[in-house]
Specification:
Chain lengths: 476, 319
């Protein structure tokens, strides 16, 4: 006893069309050369829809539409009027949040309880938050008359499709810019539903444009001479290429790249809550989180105890149908990503780390990877250095606070870190020394629109969220 | 049982000998982060339990109910009626299981015992100067012996919260040991009155203290103070019984009591048991609900599941 009966969320709230065009100048249009690709449900490999692939001429149209809207409508519009549109969008997101959450889970593979309880509330909160800034830009601390930049080219990843869209679009519009956004090719559907919301909100045509496609579309957009600002969230490799292509132009650039965060557990930590934090740090969203706590640094004298608790807790994780309300861990977003996770995990085994997963049955179809931990990992292992972007945790140990700081910082990345201890003074001491954009204390993976987010080193530059997030979209 | 467990057990049994050893041990337990514990409890509360799982859960919850009346106005007639209901919660449906126990004041035990004889329904009685516990030890022990002599096979005792909060752990420990002894073969449920302990750290310490002293069950509340059982408090107690069994090999039961009124709430507790300590505790021998009004809601939901329609409150007995 206690097998939970299936509790699937209904798909009927989502009205999927067989095919989607590009969203340019306020309307859905066909791509110039008619190319398209399929978007599939990673949990079942079922084809969800055909999506248009934007080529260079389509990007050209989108940038031109954004430019026109910037010059004629959105740029000159008073902040208080821009705020009204943003508030309207935020409210529509709330009204349609069930539909958006179900579609997000279908398209991305993430559990409905996360898209419903985490993603969507945050998406709406970002629009509400930046709506509040739209008429108060002169009070943001960037001078008395901060000006918008112009047309922003935004390229977002597949791990939080709607949330990343909100992080990009909300501050850009609040600051008076217009945007051309390219969602990831595996998760375009909710961005297209967001386009419908823009129409529903009567947003002036061209203020938000969405071009779908893969890397080539993204490159055409980023390299387009008509854009004034580039914002990218994704892998460090692509980020580097973008930085190279933007170098020497007048375009402003912010990059939000990978991470290999340390989650540091001291011997006086509240163990049960620390274990929850470790689980949330790495298995939330299948580990598809750039700030995931993928390196557990645990003080050696409590390592056995923490690991035992962690394994027991991991055995309770329910892996399976993302639309089941009781699912904790959903599907890996794509075959390619699954392959990458497998390759790096195999490297962990080959290099001598000890691999463990709880017994769990994975569905036959779709892309699945059981929650996995590696113990006996050292800084010399690939799995301790490279971002895996999957439900795979590497466990290392340390003896002293100084050693914890040293090991935590010994990475090319620096996006986030976590500290678990009952000692407040140690939290402050550690936070001062950790080279990471976000340091969580006795919690992990907490997000809030008022709080800036961004990285050190290869995790990128610029900040999103909060007052700081406006700076990237203003000429200051 | 492994050798380490045996030695850990003997080490732990030595703790009660000195105030210092007890204090050092209890304050050395891992802390509880309030925000984290409450968040986890809330998360477990969002599980969606439907159809067959719900039916199973309802029957289990009924078997776990300690059907309780603890009023100054209790009479033999009232407790007899309650005991009759404990045996046949739903007269219209013989497939409905009986509850776990009936819980009454010591003076009412004989009347309940007559009804429950050999039925499999346990008879619990609150002793030790319930609910305040503010009486001399001798009186508390006499209270306990009287309840057992009258036929109670489960004793619900309250700890001395004043002594606990003042840090006199050994005093609390000794009282539990003495009450356990006075209970004889009856199962001892130790009420921590978590609403008065104020912090989760205290709840964890009191849980361990009660288990070290020999309690068979740890119970949240008397139901007589404003804050009774909550999900986070029960979570901390479940973690304590889990860790205690790991350290000693001995399993201790958990009983949230007070304020659990609906099937929805009861199922949240069962989910928490399932995902914190596992199926070993999903049994009336190891988990109980101290409740008076929960049963009727369980019965109503049970009928809804079998017939597809809700019946009004008049279709279920008042007692």
């Amino acid at each position: 006893m206690f097998e939970y009966a299936p509790a699937p969320e209904s798909r009927s709230v989502v009205d999927l069309k067989p095919s989607y065009g590009l969203f340019i100048d306020g309307a859905f249009v066909d791509p110039t050369d008619g190319d398209s690709f399929k978007s599939i449900n990673p949990a079942s490999e079922e084809v969800l829809a055909e999506i248009a692939e934007a080529g260079a001429p389509d990007v050209e149209r989108a940038v031109r539409a954004a430019r026109k809207a910037y010059d004629k409508v959105w740029g000159p519009m008073p902040g208080r009027d821009r705020a009204k549109y943003l508030y309207r969008i935020a409210r529509l997101i709330q009204e349609r949040s069930r539909e958006l959450a179900v579609l997000e889970s279908l398209d991305n593979g993430k559990p409905i309880k996360e898209s419903r309880d985490v993603d969507l509330p945050l998406v709406a909160a970002h629009f509400f938050y930046y709506a509040g800034w739209a008429d108060k830009l002169e009070h943001a601390g960037f001078g008395s008359n901060p000006r918008s930049i112009g047309v922003a080219a935004q390229v977002i990843p597949w791990n939080f499709p709607l949330l990343m869209l909100a992080w990009k679009i909300a501050p850009a519009l609040a600051a008076g810019n217009t945007v051309v956004l390219k969602p990831a090719e595996t998760t375009s559907l909710t961005a297209l539903l967001f386009a419908e919301i823009c129409q529903q909100a009567d947003l002036p045509p061209g203020v938000v444009n969405i071009v779908t496609g893969a890397g080539d579309t993204g490159r055409a957009l980023v390299e387009h001479p008509g854009v004034d600002k580039v914002a990218f969230t994704g892998s460090t490799d692509v980020g580097r290429a973008i930085a190279r292509s933007v170098a020497g132009t007048r375009k402003k650039l912010t990059l939000e790249l990978g991470g290999k965060a340390a989650n540091i557990v001291f011997d006086d930590a509240p163990i049960d809550q620390a274990v929850e934090g470790i689980v949330n740090g790495i298995f939330f969203n299948q580990g598809h989180v750039c700030c995931a706590g993928s390196r557990l640094l645990v003080q050696e004298n409590v390592a056995d105890r923490v690991l035992e608790s962690l394994k027991r807790r991991m055995a309770q994780l329910r892996v399976g149908d993302p639309l089941d309300k009781n699912t904790d861990v959903g599907a890996i977003n794509s075959a390619a990503q699954l392959e990458r996770i497998r390759e790096l995990s195999d490297a962990g085994t080959a290099e001598g780390a000890e691999r463990w997963s709880p017994p769990c049955e994975l569905p036959e179809r779709g892309f699945w990877f059981a929650p996995t931990i590696f113990t006996g990992v050292t800084q010399a292992h690939r799995i301790a250095r490279e971002e895996i972007f999957g439900p795979v945790l590497s466990v290392l140990t340390f003896r002293t606070p100084a050693e914890a700081v040293e090991k935590a910082n010994n990475t090319p990345y620096g996006l986030s870190a976590g500290i678990w201890t009952d000692k407040g003074s140690r939290i402050l001491w550690m936070a001062d020394r950790l080279r990471a954009g976000v340091v969580w204390a006795n919690t992990f993976n907490k997000f809030d629109p008022t709080s800036p987010f961004g990285g050190y080193k290869e995790s990128g530059y610029g900040r999103e969220g909060g007052r700081h997030g406006l700076e990237a979209y203003l000429n200051v | 049982m492994t050798a380490t467990t045996t030695s850990a057990r003997s080490e732990l049994s030595e703790l009660g000998r000195s105030e210092t050893a007890l204090r050092t041990f209890l304050h050395g337990l891992p802390g509880v982060d309030q925000v984290g514990a409450e968040q986890r409890a809330a998360q477990l509360g969002t599980r969606s339990i439907k159809t067959t799982a719900k039916a199973q859960a309802i029957d289990l919850a009924i078997r776990m109910v300690d059907l309780t009346t603890l009023e100054g106005a209790d009479t033999p007639g009232k407790v007899r009626a309650l005991a009759a209901k404990a045996l046949r919660p739903d007269p219209a449906d013989p497939s409905c299981p009986h509850v776990g126990a009936v819980c009454v004041y010591p003076a009412m035990v004989p009347y309940v015992a007559e009804v429950l004889r050999n039925s499999g329904v346990h008879l619990a009685s609150v002793a030790t100067a319930f609910p305040s516990g503010q009486a001399p030890l001798e009186i508390k022990l006499a209270d306990t012996r009287a309840a057992v002599a009258a036929g109670a096979d489960e004793i619900d005792m309250v700890i001395n919260r004043g002594a606990f909060l003042a840090g006199r752990y050994k005093e609390v420990y000794d009282e539990i040991v003495a009450t356990k002894e006075a209970s004889g073969d009856a199962h001892l449920k130790v009420i921590l009155e978590t609403g008065e302990l104020a912090t989760y750290d205290n709840v964890r310490r009191a849980s361990w203290l009660a288990m070290l002293a020999g309690g068979d069950f740890i119970k949240t509340s008397t139901g007589k103070v404003p804050v009774a059982a909550t999900l986070p408090v029960t979570l901390v107690m479940l973690e304590a019984v889990r860790d205690f069994r790991e350290a000693t090999g001995r399993q201790v039961g958990v009983k949230p009591a007070g304020g659990i009124k609906t099937t929805k709430d009861a199922i949240k507790y069962l989910v928490m048991v399932n995902e914190t300590v596992g199926t070993d505790w999903l049994d009336p021998d190891w988990f109980r609900f101290g409740a008076s009004s929960l049963l009727n809601d369980l019965l109503m939901q049970r009928t809804k599941l079998t017939t597809g329609t809700y019946s009004g409150p008049d279709y279920f007995t008042l007692d």
